[in-house]
Design goal:
Structural class of chain B: mainly alpha
Distance between the termini of chain B: 13 Å
Number of strands of chain A: 0
CATH topology of the largest domain in chain A: MetI-like fold
Helix content of chain B: 55-70%
CATH architecture of chain B: Orthogonal Bundle
Distance between the termini of chain A: 48 Å
Order of helices and strands of chain A: HHHHHHHHHHHHHH
Number of helices of chain B: 14
Shape of chain B: flat
Strand content of chain A: under 5%
Oligomer: heterodimer
CATH class of chain B: Mainly Alpha
Helix content of chain A: over 70%
Largest sheet of chain A: none
Number of strands of chain B: 0
């Protein structure tokens, strides 16, 4: 009798038993994980009068979308979605373009500078934003801008200011990921382009950039979620409540719906909708974005 | 320090992640074929982002340090008279009643993440890395909260913790009689918030760790199985050690997330009444309520010094892997 069969028989039974326990555990954990969201949804679908009359821990008598409709109108959510759009779209595009250019350039500058700059960008992205917020706040209030760019002549309380800080802060992460990615591309590609007489920019656009498409898709998805979910920067660098992107606006909306938790739940869920869409439609890219920065480099 | 020339010309390190294109061994040659124009283009491409990084990140970092030694109130210039030495720091350590609670809350956050949330995330990853039915489904469930903003997470959990919310109702406690005010009780609320924060953090760590586990050479597991090692032994003796690079990332992410903690406490009660955090004290002192720039900056410097530990750890790793 060989060692494998000796160990094999009882093991199999133990494995099957183990599997049942494993699934029982995982199902329990999944239910716990989904519960807060399910509860929020349940509350959002119930009229407040029902909750007040029967308590929140009761079988709902009515379920409808009124809280969503009322919340959307009363909170002016459409308006805040637009604010977010004004910030997120340019910020994501600019950060991807700038970062891929810098990452490309860094693969060409093969000196001490390469590593130094990479460390500088990466470290900048790792700092807690609160470490720089105070001087940044005064800088934003002090730095003069042409009125054509910012109607108050400052970066403070302006979309351009918010876009700028997102680009600068996220740039560190994107450059790091893209430069690692580009280093894995075969070196011969650059040389071939060079031999063909392609200019530096041409090599970047026609050779390197297309090869980086998977990394750019992953980073784009991730950065969209990061910037959409930003609460901190817009809370402190935009003072006019009606100018805030939707995530930061939740801070004030919470006060507005203080007396109606059910509408607040509906509003919070609606704020989450774009990220939930990302979760459903682009999760492959999202996950790859999260892991690109960690599994390599 | 190794010659950077050699360092950067060495072939790219062997790919570790899935989907990474293998690099050719590449001739060790300098790209000296750049034209003058190319060099100017490179200078502009790199120069502008570097300038912005310096002006909007590193400049403010240094300014925080400078401000922390002044009593500047936010308007007018800073003159020699504004410099007050370490007065802000001594005030924080000896008289400012919110400082120690905030520091302790940050450390609790760190401890909770390091010893509870991150290990749970790793545990989930290890469980789901095996070929079990529905692994994908479980992964999706656990990582779902990661896409939500912390502001939304805060509101979702407020519904759990409210005096007539789920938890009290499930425990049979009512508002009229003996409800536990999970978020209003200053000795309880930090724990309540940590549970909510972990709900999101666990999924994040799970995703990172799963990606790492996928890149582990499967023959290591087979070898361990042939040697008769149990699952637990295989993980701690074989897998965990070869996962060292990912473990560093997990530690860095965990520490940095705990130091950055802001949104959740802010959305719940503006970081007061038991939810004080260093990050919130910075903004409360120097921006929102008062313009005690010096005091807020001193707190920022303390936060900076603490965050330099994980940052240095991470950068060392970047340098090592770039130099391989």
């Amino acid at each position: 009798m060989t060692a494998t069969t000796m160990a094999g028989r009882p093991n199999k039974r133990r494995i099957r038993k183990g599997r049942v326990a494993l699934h029982a555990f995982l199902i329990t954990m999944s239910l716990i994980w989904l519960w807060p969201l399910a509860w929020a949804l349940l509350n959002a679908l119930r009229p407040l009068s029902d909750t007040i009359k029967n308590g929140s821990w009761s079988w709902p008598t009515t379920l409808n979308l009124n809280n969503f409709i009322n919340g959307f109108q009363q909170a002016n959510l459409g308006y805040y979605y637009l604010n977010t759009l004004i910030v997120v779209i340019p910020a994501v595009l600019i950060v991807l373009i700038v970062s891929s250019l810098v990452a490309f350039a860094l693969t060409r500058v093969r000196t001490r500078i390469n590593l130094f700059l990479l460390l500088m960008f990466t470290a900048g992205n790792l700092l807690p934003p609160q470490v720089i917020i105070v001087p940044l706040y005064y800088l934003y209030n002090w730095l003069p801008l042409p009125h054509a760019i910012a109607d108050n002549g400052r970066l403070y309380d302006q979309y351009i200011g918010i876009i700028l800080i997102h680009v600068v802060f996220q740039m560190g992460f994107c450059i790091f990921v893209l430069s690692n990615y580009m280093r894995t591309l075969p070196r011969e590609l650059n040389e071939a382009a060079l031999v063909d007489g392609a200019s530096l920019f041409r090599t970047f656009r026609s050779v390197i950039l297309p090869l980086c498409a998977p990394a750019l898709a992953a980073l784009g998805t991730l950065e969209f979620t990061f910037i959409y979910n930003d609460f901190f920067w817009a809370l402190l660098l935009i003072v006019t409540g009606s100018k805030r992107p939707i995530t930061s606006a939740l801070n004030n909306l919470q006060g507005q719906f203080f007396t109606d938790q059910n509408v607040l739940a509906a509003v919070a869920l609606m704020v989450a909708v774009p990220t939930i869409i990302v979760y459903i439609a682009l999760q492959r890219h999202f996950i790859r974005g999260l892991t690109l920065g960690s599994t390599k480099g | 320090m190794p010659d950077p020339q050699v360092l950067s010309l060495a072939p790219a390190p062997a790919p570790t992640g899935a989907g990474v294109v293998a690099s050719g061994s590449g001739k060790k040659r300098r790209y000296s074929l750049l034209t003058r124009r190319d060099k100017i283009v490179l200078l502009v491409i790199v120069g502008i982002p570097v300038f912005l990084d310096v002006v909007f990140i590193w400049g403010p970092t240094l300014a925080s340090i400078l401000f922390s030694f002044t009593n500047w109130q936010g308007y007018g210039g800073i003159t020699a008279q504004n410099f007050v030495g370490v007065q802000n720091y001594t005030f924080l350590l000896t008289q400012y009643t919110l400082f120690w609670p905030a520091l302790i809350h940050n450390l609790m956050w760190l401890g909770f993440f390091v010893f509870i949330a991150s290990p749970i995330g790793i545990f989930f990853a290890v469980l789901l890395d095996r070929e079990i039915r529905g692994s994908r489904f479980y992964q999706n469930v656990f990582y779902f909260p990661v896409v939500l903003s912390l502001a939304v997470v805060g509101i979702i959990w407020e519904l759990q913790y409210a005096p007539d919310g789920f938890i009290d109702s499930a425990l049979g406690l009512t508002k009229q009689t003996n409800a536990i005010d999970w978020l209003g009780n200053p000795s309880l609320n930090i724990w309540a918030v940590l549970v909510a924060a972990s709900w999101r953090h666990v999924g994040y760590i799970m995703v990172l760790y799963l990606a790492g586990l996928k890149s582990v050479d499967p023959t290591l597991r087979e070898a361990a199985a042939i040697d008769g090692a149990s699952d637990v032994q295989t993980f701690f003796r074989v897998i965990f050690p070869v996962m060292a690079p990912i473990n560093v990332v997990i530690v860095v992410v965990t520490v940095i997330e705990s130091l950055r903690a802001f949104d959740l406490a802010y959305i719940i009660n503006q970081g007061t009444n038991g939810l004080e955090l260093l990050s919130i004290l910075i903004t409360n002192n120097s921006i929102s309520e008062a313009s005690l720039v010096g005091r807020g900056s001193a707190i920022a410097v303390i936060l900076l010094v603490i965050s330099l530990v994980p940052i240095t750890l991470y950068l060392t790793r970047v340098m090592r892997s770039t130099g391989e």
